[in-house]
Amino acid sequence: MELLLASAIGLLAGAGVYLSLRGRTFPVVLGLTFVSYAVNLFIFVAGGIRLDAPPIVGAAAAMTDPLPQALVLTAIVIGFGMTAYLVVLAIRLRAADGHDHVDGDGEAGR
Amino acid sequence: MQSSASLIWVFALPFAGSLLPLVFARRGRSFIAGAAAVGPAIALALLLQAMPAVFQGEAPRFSAPWVPALGLDFSLRLDGWAWLFATLILAIGLLIILYARYYLSADDPFGRFFSMLLLFMGSMLGIAVSDNLLLLIFFWELTSLSSFLLIGYWNHRADARAGARMALAVTGMGGLALLGGALVLREMTGTLEISVLNTLGPQIREHALYPVALTLVLLGAFTKSAQFPFHFWLPNAMAAPTPVSAYLHSATMVKAGIFLLARLYPALSGTDAWFYAVGGTGLVTLVFGAYQATFRHDLKGLLAYSTISHLGLITLLLGLDSPLAPIAAVFHILNHATFKASLFMAAGIIDHETGTRDMRRLGGLWRAMPVTGALALVAAAAMAGVPFLNGFLSKEMLFAETLATERGGLVAFLVPLAATAAGIFGVAYSTRFIHDVFFNGPQKELPREPHEPPRWMRIPVELLVVICVLVGIVPQVLVGSVLDVAGSAVIGAAPPQYSLAIWHGFNLPLLMSGVALAGGVAMYFWLQSRSLHAHVGSAWTGHGLFEKLIHGLDRGSRAFTSITTDGRLQRQVVVIALVTVAAGFVPMLAGMPGRSLSATTPVNLIAIVGWAVLVLATVGVLAAHRQRLTALILTGAAGLIVSAAFAYYSAPDLALTQLVVEVAMTLLMLLALGRLPAESPRESSGLRKLRDGAVAVFCGAGMGGAAWWMMTRDGPSISAEHILRSVPEGGGTNVVNVILVDFRGFDTFGEISVLVTAALGIVALLSQGSGMPGPVTQDREPALAMLSRVILPPTLLVSMYIFLRGHNLPGGGFIAGLVSGVVIAMLGIGSGQAWRHAAVRIDFHRVTATGLAIAALTGLGAWVFGRPFLTSAHGPVPIPLVGELHLATAALFDLGVYLVVVGIVMLVLDSLSARPERAA
Predict the structure, then answer these.
(1) Which residue in chain B is spatially nearest to A35 when comparing CA positions?
(2) pTM (2 d.p.)
């Protein structure tokens, strides 16, 4: 199970980095979303992986570590705020310059 | 001074008084100056009231804890030395206020000047009465800042701005060194209270860290007191108005470094390191400053270098290890302040009345300004060390102390010789100050026709000159007891026997004085005969080096920046990614921590299926990322699997949040796609893809590897406490929610503030929407319109339920807010904004602000009960008809979170789905 999760995290992170290196704004936003998935999962598994052990007092026999979950929960919501801001920035960029290249030059996409 | 707490008023009054000149800035000049004098005058009266007690050897002390964890206490202490220094600051300060009233011209902003002057005065007084080293440094930095403002007072002048910057840079760096020194001292002794440090002298001096502490403290003191080689900022600070030069850069601020040396004298002095570092620096500065002063053509330049020289003299005295030397240092601080302040004021009068300070253009002014001339003559004579004036006495003491050293060899020979040489130059520049300005031929052509200044402008000079003369004639009567009290406070013991008298018989010090006087006058006239006026200063100056250093730093950082970034995002992301990977590897070089392997969890079919879907979706996105809609849908699929993983591995809250965020995000991106191209062009070269792929593989492998290592090792958890306290203290069984709204509520508060900021940014970006490409969606989507209206009521109900149960079961403000926000936004997307606005008449800006306010007020509410910010309370609350309900104040905080999230989702989705106004 650990290997499955670790490989998934690695794949998500790699895909995120690759997409953020693209020249257009939309794939960069998607890339950051993937990086967020990877990082959130990474922090989450720092608490160990347990099945049927929700961090609710009295709900089950065992309890998993609640702290990473609290951290990730805020990270998800902040990530939403950040992505929303980026998306709007991308729209503004297109409106202002007429293209959606991250470095501001539509033709010279090296 | 009735109680020791009133010590605060000594510096609080000038600080408070600094508001008066601003309040009355539109009144007459005399009124503003008068208002400025009120605070210092009362503070001076307080000091005089405290005088009898202090002179009997008492030292009133006040202490209150401030930041105990840092060793920062609000400790004040008024011993003899602090009293003398504070009195000096206030007395000269009052004279300066009177002088500045006449010095400044009608165009200068009057209120601002006096306000800054009082700020400076308060900071100086803070240094004088602080008994905690950190507190002292706090005020020390304030003097650097206010000095910066005062030097740059005429901010339209480039030289004033440059001088102010340089002074701030040099003294600011010294201040950092001093802070370091204080921290080292604390490390050595465990205390920062100066009065305690001064009792620990032997322990400090034998400590291994003593040289470090000494070096850092001395760097602070030497930069502040313009000691060689840090002296160069002082001549450049002469761009300040003359009252500022007289006050800050001769009488008080530059003495702060020396004050500190004397303040820590019992703790730090008495070693060879102290003798050579302090004495050596003082000696070099004394001679260097005196030599330089002789060749300045600018009156204030001469006085600046002379000040440097005299500061060196005092530093030298503090460095010498003879028992009387510190007493002589205290005496000279007093004397220098009186004669140098009056000389600066005289220079200001000459500048004011003639329009120039250049001694090559001045001359023969005695006829036009006999009174000013006479006053300057006496003050300059005191500076030169002419008998019957105060300067003679302390200079004579210096000569005596240089001879009194018990060190043999070169020191016993060199120090008196250098002191005499500096004496000769001192007499030479003093002679020049008088002869080149008031005599030396007939009056020359001047910008203004010179005459005596207004009556009141001369009063401060007259008072100071009278003091010079009186102290010079009857020293024992006037300053004997002050010196005893201040001197013993500096040494930390009763001072040795000494006599303050003009005549000690024919001895070596008297001979040295005689040689200096005769030699100095002779040297000046010899220099004049060799065309002193044609002398050009050398290019090799500290100033030039400083400029080169700053220039070099500037160029270096520019070069470094151009290496690391070329202003293109793609390059920057590569650099960031690679640096991050490298940073992750660095700790591994030192070896991995030895952790035992933990048991692995067995794999099952559900997990494998989920993993396979995730891999497919991710690879699909990578392959099809240029078809944007497809990529978006596949991204959503990956997000759903992540959400499912959270649910599967016991994180119901995360699963819910991820799910709702996924919905909101997909909605957002769909709306955004309407305004962006549907496809990305094919523009990356194969090589480029290879490079990016390599970087991505590095990052992915690093992160996956780290995750695997972490999951397969045992590690300690810090969560036990959270789980234990969740129910009894947080009043909730859902530990994640309790952590969010209670244990780490402050984090959450910061987070929703960030969200609000992001939303404000989004709304601002979209509101200036000229030329925005319109959305491709129609105003109405019939199917979505119908659906969104039908699901609205039940969904809102569900979100209420999620919110209410959040403290005990999965749910809470974040999730409920996202659900409500999305479902309301769907109305607008389906039925058009006009319909939505008519149906839901809620201003979501206001909702967001209300949410933030509720969260903040809940936190502040704890203060009413004397608890720290965001302390929560909980308990059963009786509700009519329903019965008792267990509620926590944290629920109120969560309500704030809920409202913020609803507001933000609405603001973002609303503004994106709104059809922009078409330009024409």
Answers:
(1) B700
(2) 0.70
